[in-house]
Automatic annotation (TrEMBL):
Biological pathway: Amino-acid biosynthesis; L-histidine biosynthesis; L-histidine from 5-phospho-alpha-D-ribose 1-diphosphate: step 7/9
Family the UniProt entry places it in: Belongs to the class-II pyridoxal-phosphate-dependent aminotransferase family. Histidinol-phosphate aminotransferase subfamily.
N6-(pyridoxal phosphate)lysine, modified sites: 224
Subunit structure: Homodimer.
The keyword Hydrolase is assigned to this record: no
Keywords in alphabetical order: Amino-acid biosynthesis, Aminotransferase, Histidine biosynthesis, Pyridoxal phosphate, Transferase
Gene this chain is encoded by: hisC
GO BP annotation list: L-histidine biosynthetic process
Source taxonomy: Bacteria, Pseudomonadati, Pseudomonadota, Alphaproteobacteria, Hyphomicrobiales
Protein name: Histidinol-phosphate aminotransferase
GO function terms (MF aspect): histidinol-phosphate transaminase activity; pyridoxal phosphate binding
Enzyme Commission number: 2.6.1.9
Reaction equation(s) it catalyzes: L-histidinol phosphate + 2-oxoglutarate = 3-(imidazol-4-yl)-2-oxopropyl phosphate + L-glutamate
Domain Aminotransferase class I/classII large, residue spans: 33-360
């Protein structure tokens, strides 16, 4: 039956989504702005990635390679993987969405942890499925709580390891225990967007687990340590059956030509990655002790960002954010992640990091 007044309505779930709000970019009225709100690298991309773009610009009339072969080959070479188990996407966000569209039907359930990346809930809901948030312990994913939340309707479990915005991780034994406890028909998605930054012996990004099981996938991104967030490139390492399904549902040219060329060059520049790791190691610990010296609490981070808590001080995150923004330092409010009184700061350049520490010192000392 049709009614004269009916209008197109989004399918169930879509209007339940709270749209993702990206980190701020500007500080009105301030000349020099340091954007420390989206975990971008202060080193920028590899110069060879930028150079690779010039060849692409001469032939923008040509469709990209729909299979992203050059990019998949570069990733496969560096990690020693079979390129047949790799699929590239328009940022890993696209891949997270494709996984939900592929594996979730209306009424199914998708699990993520309390302070997990917001995109999981958005994509689960958009697929018409039920988002299930599981409590964390000390800002860390709790494997027992996740396993307790699994029901007959569960089809997907998202785990960011390390997690954003907390910066915490769970060791490989815990990830294995999670996989072992899940029914075989539940897909475990290990989002390893910050894996390159982790320097811990008990950490594994997911490559081993994917290789050894049928229900685990790992997503990675070029947006963070590779400095190519603006080009939108992500990849997934997955069993052949998952790659086959995703290849049917994805857009035929989902990765653009610039992304393929620059991504492949960036992946092969390992020196650039090493420089970024060294810079991050140095400044993450200096910033952590600097914040602690001001009486602030910092969640121990293995990523390229810090979650700084204002609880127990006379100041609030909201006031601190306003003050820092007025000085040109744009950090991230994390209320939507369940931290109304904390700010997330990306490890920036030396100038940015020293500037934030100095500004925050002034702010904390204000009466
Ligand atoms: C930044 C980030 C991503 C990367 O998203 P892209 O779409 O590849 O830019 C994925 N997962 C988490 C947890 C992130 O913080």
């Amino acid at each position: 039956m049709t009614s004269a007044r009916s209008v197109p309505a989004p399918k169930n779930g879509v209007m339940d989504i709270a749209a993702y709000v990206p980190g701020k970019e500007t500080a009105p009225g301030v000349e020099r702005v340091y954007k420390l709100s989206s975990n971008e690298t202060p080193l920028g991309p590899s110069p060879s990635a930028v150079k690779a773009l010039t060849h692409v610009l001469d032939h923008l009339e040509i469709y990209p390679d729909g299979a992203s072969n050059a990019l998949r080959d570069a990733i496969a070479d560096v990690y020693g993987l079979n390129p047949a188990n790799i699929l590239c996407g328009n940022g890993s966000d696209e891949l997270l969405g494709l996984l939900c569209q592929t594996y979730l039907s209306p009424g199914d359930e998708g699990i993520f942890s309390e302070h997990g990346f917001l995109v999981y809930k958005i994509q689960i809901t958009g697929a018409g499925a039920v988002p299930v948030s599981v409590p964390e312990t000390d800002c860390r994913a709790n494997v027992d709580a996740i396993l307790d939340a699994v029901t007959e309707r569960t089809r997907i479990v998202f785990l960011a390891n390390p997690n954003n915005p907390t910066g915490t991780y769970i060791p490989v034994d815990e990830v294995r225990r999670l996989q072992a406890g899940l029914p075989g028909n539940v897909l475990l998605v290990l989002d390893a967007a910050y894996a390159e930054y982790v320097r811990r012996n008990d950490y594994e990004s997911g490559i081993e687990l994917v290789s050894g099981s049928d229900n685990v996938v790992m997503t990675r991104t070029f947006s963070k340590i590779y400095g190519l967030a603006g080009l939108r490139i992500g990849w997934i390492y997955a069993p052949a059956a998952v790659i086959d399904a995703l290849n049917r549902i994805r857009g035929p040219f989902n990765v653009n030509a610039a992304a393929i060329a620059a991504g492949a060059a960036a992946m092969r520049d390992r020196d650039h990655v090493e420089r970024a790791i060294a810079h991050n190691e140095d400044w993450r610990s200096r910033l952590t002790s600097g914040f602690e010296a001001l009486g602030l609490t910092v969640t121990p981070s293995v990523g390229n960002f810090l979650l700084v808590h204002f609880d127990g001080t006379a100041k609030s995150a909201e006031e601190a954010d306003a003050f820092l923004t007025s000085c040109g330092f744009v950090l991230r409010r994390v209320t939507a992640y369940g931290f109304p009184n904390a700010l997330r700061m990306t490890v920036g350049s030396q100038e940015a990091n020293e500037g934030v520490l100095a500004a925050l010192k002034d702010f904390m000392e204000q009466a």
